[in-house]
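Page 42, continued from yesterday. The earlier attempt failed because a stray header line got pasted into the input along with the sequence. Redoing it now with the clean sequence only.
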Amino acid sequence: MPQDRQPLTRIPRTGLPEHAVVVGDPGRAADVAALLDGAEEVSYHREYRVFAGSWKGLPVAVASHGIGGPGAILLFQEMADAGVGTFVRLGTAGAMRPGIGDGELVIAQAAVRDDGVTGQLLPPEYPAVAAPEAVLALERAAREAGAVSHRGIVWTRAAFQPGLIPLTAYEGAGLAAIEMELSALLVTASLRGLVAGGVLVIDGVNADELADERATGAYDPHREVVTSGVERGAVVSLEALRLLAERAGGC
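This time it went through. Structure tokens are written below.
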């Protein structure tokens, strides 16, 4: 095994840009990277596809982490080892609160740690919280992009398909969305002193259709309203990174 590569993701051991957008789908990573200047593929191993380029002069990495917290946290940890200090997760999610429409953005303040991995790393009382400056940067970027956004707590849940246990644990708690990886990122960032936030594009209601009365049938994340939302979310994510770098004096 070449010694200049991380053992699990095969990304370089050092030298990644300090700022990164992370997404689930390797294809989405390529789409986001296409917005960068001078983007080049750095590595592609398993679900971990990594690009580097620049956004308005800011060096940026874009990487895919696959589905689910246990695999995703491996990427977050190895990217941090390779030099990334600021992360924005761009993902899709189901709405959990009335008034949040398909294609709209949810900017996470914090996440419920039901991710299937962080509970094996530290006690459940430890919170998964976004960096306040990341929340504010994402809100500003969304506003300047004309994207409808909502702020709230999201539920990171390891299981995607509904089972015999109904999704009622947090009914009435005002959660904004449900997804699968964000709390793993937020916990990693807090433990390592990094900056992290998340912006999620709504692609439908949650599996048990508890959030509101808009559900009409089968889950379909491939509609144009979702595709357009992801495109807006990509710009918002990149611009938020630029704002964070500007705030820190690095751009």
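Notes: The chain has one domain: 19-248.
Reminder to self: strip header lines before submitting.
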